[in-house]
Design a protein that fits this description.
The protein contains three helices and ten strands. By secondary structure, the protein is of the alpha+beta class.
Length: 151
């Protein structure tokens, strides 16, 4: 699936993988191309029913991994991992050694969408680039449904 990839900074809606993910998006309305996993997750000391939905697509020559997080039926967060052809060709050690390059690439993509600063706050939520303990780099978009991330 090749699809346009866009973040609307006026409302926080993300267009990717054949959907427009907004605060009113529901997991059961996603296309069949999304894999879904339901599980209870501990959020601020209480168990919350969550659905994680993921899809892989392309935008131009980029590979795009999209993950949507729903808590108690509400979309709370989106994350995007963008991989260029040059990064896909790297051996594993070189790929993990490119963490700073991948971080800057994700920041530049956000900037191309009109997001200045990392993280950036908006009336609808927050967006930025993050790096996990395994040196995976991704863009996160937390909307106003996400109480724990917007404090």
């Amino acid at each position: 699936m090749n699809t346009a990839l866009h973040l609307d900074t006026t409302n926080g809606c993300l267009s990717a993988a054949g959907v427009v993910a907004c605060t009113d998006t529901r997991a059961d309305s996603l296309p069949d191309s999304f894999a879904r996993t339901a599980q209870a997750v501990l959020v601020e000391g209480r168990l919350v029913d969550c659905v994680f939905a993921s899809a892989t697509t392309t935008s131009g020559d980029m590979a795009v991994q999209l993950m949507l997080r729903f808590e108690e039926l509400l979309l709370v967060s989106c994350s995007l991992t963008l991989t260029t052809p040059a990064l896909r060709k790297l051996e594993e050690a070189d790929f993990y050694g490119s963490v700073d390059q991948r971080y800057r690439f994700h920041e530049r993509w956000l900037a191309s969408m009109g997001v200045s600063g990392n993280p950036a706050a908006f009336p609808w939520g927050r967006a930025g680039v993050a790096r996990d303990r395994s040196d995976n780099v991704y863009i996160y978009i937390h909307n106003r449904n996400n109480r724990w991330a917007l404090r």
